[in-house]
Amino acid sequence: MAKPSSKSKKSTFSSSTDSTSPDNLAQEEDHPATATITVTAVEIPELTEQEISDRLHLERKVERAFFEAGKALAQLRDRRLYRSTHRTFEEYCRDRFGYTHRRVNYLIAGSVVFDNIVTGTNCSQNEEVDKTGTNCSQNGEVDETGTNCSQNEEVDKTRPNLSRILPTNEGQVRPLAKLEPQQQVKVWQRAVQEAGGKVPSARIVTDVVQKIMERTRIPNTYQTGEVCQILVKDNPELRGKGGCWGIISQVNDFSCTVKLWDGEYTVGLQYLKSYNYLPAECEQMQLISDRITRLRQNENLEEAGRAVLKYLGELKRPYLIQVEQKLLSLIELECEMEG
């Protein structure tokens, strides 16, 4: 008599469910563990060897000077080099570097300002001479005063070369982010002068920016209770607020305090645009704003309720339609009941 084989046979599963016979169906019912389940997976392209190398290289830069960190973070974000380990860029920066979303935006914006200063003053971090001939003499010697000089002119070595004083941290250039590139260069050089030819502090840079805004300021014509739209432009502090409406609660010299759906913010005049609503329409929006504020401060408000409030905070009209009115009333009722 033949001896039975001691090797167990491997079960073979079909990847298709179109040709399942009645016998197979019966067998699957008797043995549910062997049933075939088809799962559709979304493929995320793996990082190539070059991308892995680039990621490590850029991560090292992030941990160094702020301007290199900003450039590296911008590349990591734009090329999505975080996709192999994290779902979002924000999660990746928090886990890998311990950076908040706001900190990342400041670093990226700061690197752009740094580049503008370097380009505008025709110098580099290593104090290389501009090859175009700017800031150099006829025979190629560098003018120590930071201005053009001829071959026979005597160099004044007692004056600091302002074009070679560059920012050393992100806080020094943060006040410049709201200015145009040419203004950024002029303000930085003025700040270096006020710092005695040394790297100016963030406070000095802020003071110079404030003085320039005072000379060129536009009269603040906004009024308390006016409804305005938020314009983000290049302001990282307003990220996610673009298109939201708000009620002006305080009018300042160069800004307004605006109450949005998720809180109050101090916003520069260049980031505001009036809806030019009629007084009655402004009053109606004020009532909606008050209801939203009360709900937002309610500890029983759930995530779905916050999503509705955010939607209402982005309306482009001075009233609620019937379904929006019902949603808002329902959330108010639910919060009262749970309270």
TrEMBL record:
Composition skew (Basic residues), residue ranges: 1-10
Give the start-end ranges of region Disordered.
Answer: 1-34, 137-157
Q: Where is the composition biased (Polar residues)?
A: 137-152
Could you provide one GO biological process annotation from this protein's UniProt record? methylation
- Here the segments flagged for biased composition (Low complexity) are 11-21
Q: Name one GO molecular function term.
A: methyltransferase activity
Q: Which UniProt keywords apply?
A: Methyltransferase, Transferase
Q: What is this protein called?
A: Site-specific DNA-cytosine methylase
Q: Which organism is it from?
A: Nostoc flagelliforme CCNUN1
